[in-house]
UniProtKB/TrEMBL annotation:
InterPro entries listed in its UniProt record: Aminoglycoside_PTrfase, Kinase-like_dom_sf
Sequence intervals crossing the membrane: none
Domain annotation Aminoglycoside phosphotransferase: ranges: 32-222
Sections of the chain in a coiled coil: none
UniProt-recorded Gene Ontology molecular function terms: kinase activity
Record's protein name: Ser/Thr protein kinase RdoA (MazF antagonist)
Pfam assignment, any one: APH
Domain of life: Bacteria
UniProt entry keywords in alphabetical sequence: Kinase, Transferase
Amino acid sequence: MVDPVVGARWRITAGPPLGDRPRGTWAAARDGVPLVVKFFDEATFPDWRYTVRVADALRARGWPTPELADDTIDVPGGAWALFHRLPGRPRDAGPGEQRARGRLLAGLHESAAATGITGQRGGFADPAAVVADPTVDDWLRIHERTDPDGARTMWRHLDATRAWFAAHPAPDVPRSVIHGDFAPWNLLYDDGRLTGVLDFEGTHHTVQVADFALSWRGYQDEVLRGYDEVRPLSEVEWQLIRPAFRAWLFIDARAELAALRGGRAAALTDLSWPLAHLRKRSPLLDRRAGPGGP
């Protein structure tokens, strides 16, 4: 629930939790104006001020992003933030939505590059650095005890991804801040007009095709087609999509292991989500970059 002291300071009436993180985001209102309360747990959302900076910079370029409605409130372990609530609702999912979203993402990346933000967000790294981290090995060794078959699959993909980056240590591809989760539920529309780009929790500076990890998700090929219509992808970018996507599936390993070792978690999250996405197939990417193996 929203801290009563925080609610009183902001003079808000707190409402129900929002989204799939009921402990982190709540509806609220002040003087009849709809708002959103977020708690940024410093362990879950490192360098959260970076996310506000990116959203502000994109809003200055015409994108409808969340805007702070009051001063943030720092507390032990994190911070409370109050945002204006953006209107609209997500579009229905489907091939048409995917292609339009890919085109939109290409436009967002053009604006993101124009922000001039080149610094890296604390706690984040490029895909090559994610898979090179020896913590990932420790994380997988723990998974081997409870899910040896799943861990074996993850090892194969990790080895293949490391091999790709070893062979391509500095790919010449466009970089910028990325959104991090350009999914249908994070885009709001009202009568066909884009009214909200939500959830910058995964934003950081990296190769732009890393944004396909949670927009394409290994199989939504219309997202790639739509993007390529607006900003044609180079051959090396087509080759990079799959390694960058696989690296994203290991992105939480360090934080999960730290939580386990620090007594903040009783066990690691199971491998069902990354394994399910590794099983996805992309006919388009197979044609442009070769079969997905291993």
